[in-house]
Amino acid sequence: MLRRKPTRLELKLDDIEEFESIRKDLESRKKQREDAEAAAAGEEAAAAIALGTDHKSREQIINDRIGYKPQPKAGGRAAHFGTFEF
């Protein structure tokens, strides 16, 4: 395999200006999104308090977020061993 010298990249003033403008644009979008989410969360919290809903436990909040809906387990030995009685 032939070896070649590394390519030299030069950073120009136009490149720096373009980078700064894109970075500022992304930061402003992120700030607007965070403000909108904070406002929506505040409205939801106010609505939940106004409706008098009960507070969810940390486990319930996580289950809701990931979409996990635990099914209650059937109690007793019969559920594990069919209809056999001991």
Automatic annotation (TrEMBL):
It comes from the Eukaryota. Residues 9-39 form a coiled coil. Pathway: Protein modification; protein ubiquitination. GO terms for biological process: cell division. Residues 66-86 are annotated as: Disordered. InterPro entries: APC_suCDC26. The keyword Lipoprotein does not apply. Keywords: Cell cycle, Cell division, Coiled coil, Mitosis, Nucleus, Ubl conjugation pathway. It is found in: Nucleus. Pfam families: ANAPC_CDC26. GO terms for cellular component: nucleus. Belongs to the CDC26 family. This is Anaphase-promoting complex subunit CDC26. It comes from Grus japonensis (Japanese crane).
